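Example 3.2
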Amino acid sequence: MMFHANLNTYLMLALFLLMTGIYGMIRHKTFIGMLISTELVLNGAGLNFMAFNKFLAPDPAVGQIFTLFIMGIAAAEAAIAISFILAVYRKFSTGDPQGVTDLKG
């Protein structure tokens, strides 16, 4: 049996990634969990661009360029967020956002 994907299949998968990411950002109690959830949201957006690129775009390079841009933003966001997380952990010895009470230098 061959699986034939259409636009709705990709959009439902992207919606699942988006909703899972938003739920994770709300429910996770650690900075790393929130970072991973943010990556899920960005991956859902990239999947949307690629799905619309495949099924609706007259120029196939446009969706791919936007997706590469989103991937670059996600990589930069991860690098910056991890450096912030390490700085907070060194200062407060916790990865819990509730444990960070004083943000003054």
